[in-house]
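Why predict the complex rather than its parts? Because the way molecules touch one another can change local conformation, and only a joint prediction can capture that. The input here totals 988 residues.
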Amino acid sequence: MKTHVQTEINGEAVECLIDPSTTLLNMLRNELLLTGTKEGCGSGDCGACSVVMDGELVCACLVLGVEASGAQIETIEGVADKDQLHVIQEKFLEHAALQCGICTPGLIVSTKALLAQNPDPTEEEARYFLAGNLCRCTGYDKIIKAVMDAASVLKEAS
Amino acid sequence: MSEARQFQHIGQRIIRPDGFDKVTGRANYGADFRLPGMIWGKILRSPHAHAKIKKLDVSKAEAHPDVLAVATHQDFPSVNSEAFAAGEAMMDVLDLARNVLADKKVLYHGHAIAAIAATSEAAAAMALNLIEVEYEVLPPVMTLDAALAEDAPLLHEDMITQGLTEPATTPSNVASRMELKKGDVAAGFAEADVIVERTYETPTVHQGYIEPHATVVRYDDKAPSLVWASTQGHFDVRASVSKLLKMKLGQVKVIASEIGGGFGGKTTVYLEPVAMILSKKSGRPVKMIMSREEVFRASGPASASRSHVKIGAKQSGEIVAMEATLHFEAGAFKGSPMGPGCMTIFTPYDVPNLFVEGYDVVVNKAKVAAYRAPGAPQAEFAAEMAMNELAAKLKMDPIDFRLLNAAKEGTQTIYGPKLKEVGLVECLEAARRSPHYQSQVAKGCGRGLAAGFWFNIGGQSSVTLNLNPDGTGTIIEGSPDIGGSRASMQMMAAEVLGIEPNRLNPIVADTETLPYNQTTGGSRTTFATGMAVIEAAEDVIEQLKSRAASLWNVTAEQVDYKNGVVLNLAGDDQMTLAQICASAEKTGGQISGRGNVNARGAGPSFAVHLCDVKVDQETGKTDVVRYTAIQDAGKAIHPSYVEGQFQGGAVQGIGWALNEEYVYNSDGIMENAGFLDYRIPLASDLPEIETIIVEVPNTFHPFGVRGVGETGIVPPLGAVASAVSDAIDRPVTKIPCSPPHVLSMILNKD
Amino acid sequence: MAVVRFSSHLETLTGALETEVKAVSYRDLIQELLEKFPNLKDAGLQDLALALDGELIQEPLLVTFSSTAELHFVPKLAAG
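Output of the joint prediction:
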């Protein structure tokens, strides 16, 4: 028997009917057709499914869809403002911080969470915060450069 | 032929054209596609590493109301053993069919036996339990020694070793042997003052792409069937699926999704043929995705290896002989990259006497697939470790030792031809000058370095370049973009046409839109697809000139094209590309260029990597504290993406050297089939990866391009392991240098 | 005359390390070699790549070369 879930995704109220065993990840991807959040492992080890739930960075594959009831979820689809990219997204492109791009949505969401929590991280702090986001293509070098550059630009602006 | 020249766009760092989609989550990867009426497929996998299938009964599953189709090996039209070029490797069709769905034997834990398509993912998974299988369990063969033993259980009763000097008469687990030689190693070693001889081992590792295999397939009777797949080569997916299911190529349309990493592991098929059978039997589109566990257990990892290497040199540092015996694990079916391993192992060095023999050995592990310069990391790791040990014995700097013996233009390789212009010497010199090498090794740290070589390939690419009436246009190419290559295509077309890159949008088109394009791999894309783009752009120029000439009523010889403008040499008119496009309707129709190449002249790429590590003497934990990757790119079209290839290859190699390995239990079951325990490098593990791009142009490419994607994974194994060796003052002969292994080396003082 | 140098495996079939050939095209080369060394018919020459003066050519069917060319047969390359 399916459960009715009402939640808010990127500021928009949504609802759907899901099996209680459905993860938030599969609810986003298969029910709400928000496929920007990716599955890399299904066990919370790779960070490709990173979303923010009530202000906390979580792996959507480790959260049940029913737990999102009444919560505020932020996904990659809510980071840009229509066609205006967020500074983090711009810096990722400028620094070529992506090759295949599969880890990129999760990394951008995580980076946004990092900078919300710690607007002036050291490189080491950035690397440790983002340790839960696996990337196999880039070796992380350009990702960290993009993150540090985004941090400095956002700090200037604030 | 390229000459040293100033480029307008080549060498810039433009924003990639597909970038917006990638950073917003809009880009569609393998699992992001759906079709109306779609159902879900799941695979039943062997619980045993080695067994005969005595009975397979799918009737209960077929009878379940939620199940719409069941597939087994019997659903393949019978195929004969036939070598078949698919995914860059000659692959036996029968082996492919048996790997995709097991026939009479299961040959690795996780081997696919049957598949179910049901109305939901959960229903499909549940219905797998309704399939009844009876096995006769056989002893698993999990190591080279076990496979080579006198009384070893045989994986294939009909496997007779090919390539032995005395032909084999009885079956074994050795599929083939290969031998390459140059000169006379016995005579060479007789002249050596110093010899290093050791056996080196590398484990089974996985390419580790973050996106699991995924496909959606819709079988169609009257129109081409549709396959949406995450793949490095959609034309080869078409070839494999049509071959296995006896369909014509024109009956299968494959769309390449965006791909979340491949590194060679997505150059073959696992799910697509199964999904096609399920779709045909159910009459519905079928979606199949591998879980991460399935990716580890049942896709193709890279060969474990054992290499016995012997190198001899005179006191002066001149190497007189090099010899190696290589054993590569192929997994369940024949076909490891033992051949390229033999061909690459000593190629960085100009040595008169060489002998290499290699063995391709089957074991009860997943059938191996390509992994970035397949065979070369394993083999060259062994050679580079021996080289460093020899340099130390000779009390020579390891860079000087390599410079003294470096391969250059004219060096004859062990596999026959002489090298044309190459950049190893330039890479070694750049390494010596680098800030990294100039710096002191920090206290408590060790330093290592290694060279690396990979051939790179050319091959078939086809491109169409269509122009719109307003002078914008589309580059239609067929190489799935794994690393940002669309940006380079845009830049190369812009350079030839003399226009801004963003006037032309590059797209990766499906198998119905272009003729055959070879797989993205082999470091071929910027080189070969680039050549096709250049050819298509030059074709466009000829058309633009001819249209302008007809408008001006002059001959073809009286016009010229420069910087986006056609010039009337017989007058002083000129027309821009956009203006000619605007009047194309009047001058004969729309303008569209074509480039179809089977690119020759791919230039090899040499690399040298430097690595400093710090080893915790109490735990054996090793941290990379400084790393520099130096590699010859010929000409870097987009330097950021060239650096990205260097860095990505380096970090995969660091993982291979320090942490990554498949851990099997005594039943042949992988115990660490997940990212928690199959430990790839994290952001917190690594320092900055410094890069130096060396450019010794490849004169066969109009801009001098050499492929760079693969070589970068070759040096890190030797660079990292040598650094560990330096830090703990012990010879390292086995990787990964995981903490328990390093600690045991520290504690055993032999 | 162009020169063909044989790898270990081909050497066991031909008994020679190298041979001179009159051919100036790949097709004529194969024919000449098979006539000269009948054992080569089992070597699968057509499945091999050709190295021509150092250039590795994976599909050599239409290749022509000069009378000073140096030729090798090399396994076709797989890559990742």
